[in-house]
Design a protein that fits this description.
Layout lengths: L6 H5 L5 H16 L4 H30 L1
Amino acid sequence: MAGLPTAEETLALRPSEALIEQISDLLEKNRLIGLNEQEERSWQHYEYVEHLVQIAKATALLKLKAK
């Protein structure tokens, strides 16, 4: 079984350059011409994952402050 990341590791999470580029491309395309159905689903997926990461980071920060 894999171990869970430490609070410090969770707070250090950053998107890869490739992911940043994909998101930037979707944002630009949405601004210019709009997204097709598949791109919209991808965007929603990225938003959901970002929300989960924000929750994980907030929880990690609370754990560090409680020490």
